Amino acid sequence: MSIQENLAEIKADLPEGVTLVAVSKTKPNEAILEAYEAGQRVFGENKVQDMVQKWEALPKDIEWHMIGHLQRNKVKYMAEFVSLIHGVDSLKLLKEIDKQAQKHNRVIPCLLQMHIAEEDTKFGLDEDELKALLASAEFKQMKHVKIMGLMGMATFTDNENQVRKEFARLKSLFENLKLQLPEIRILSMGMSGDYGIAITEGSTMVRIGSSIFGARNYS
């Protein structure tokens, strides 16, 4: 099936109110343009350098989402244009985003990444770290970042009950956070393998790559 057909199939599957981030990492500009021609405007990259190159070469109405683990020293390269940063997992990183956004006179929308998986390899804040970040004087002084919601990745497993449980936990953290930050509205959870479960557990944004573009090319 073509990228266009894959996209149409996935979009038909998504309930209203769920945003599709097409994960275009490792994919060439031609593949992104094919998705663009089919009406897709939101793309996710996990490497800043790749995202900058694609931003420079591709149509300017594309929304670029940074979905990978972000190093502080890379923020400056994308502060001018990034639409949403999914993986903010520390106060230090948020401070750097705030600083770089100020240079471009922008407010950069961000998601706080929560650690919900049982695997140790995934990045993210735990509940205590989330509370500490939001309560900190430094956070309250930031004028150039806006917290839009939460992001999390479930354990990579065939055990659907475990995945469901982890997503349900993230949803409950999201609802609690809403009491503190009523304006948040994005719950980014679910990828090609588990987005169906994520949506039933309340996801408002899914990150899908291989189901749109085909298997990833790592070479």
Strand content: 15-25%
Regarding quaternary structure, what we see is single chain
User: If you average the pLDDT, what whole number results?
Assistant: 95
CATH superfamily: Alanine racemase
Order of helices and strands: HEHEHEHEHEHHEHEHEH
The rough form would be described as globular
Count of distinct structural domains: 1
Can you offer a commentary on this structure?
The chain is of the alpha/beta class. It has one domain (3-213): TIM Barrel (Alpha-Beta Barrel), CATH 3.20.20. It has ten helices and eight strands. Strands 1-2-3-4-5-6-7-8 form an eight-stranded parallel barrel. The longest helix is centred in the last third of the chain and has 21 residues, at 160-180. The relative contact order is 0.15.
What's the layout of helices and strands?
Blueprint lengths: L2 H11 L5 E5 L5 H9 L4 E4 L2 H10 L5 E4 L8 H4 L5 E5 L2 H13 L4 E7 L12 H9 L1 H5 L3 E8 L7 H21 L5 E6 L3 H6 L4 E4 L1 H4 L6
Parallel strand pairs: 1-2, 1-8, 2-3, 3-4, 4-5, 5-6, 6-7, 7-8
Short note summarizing the structure:
With 219 residues, the chain is α/β, with parallel strands linked by helices. Helices cover 42% and strands 20% of the residues.
Key terms:
219 residues; alpha/beta; TIM Barrel; 8-stranded parallel beta barrel; 8 strands; globular
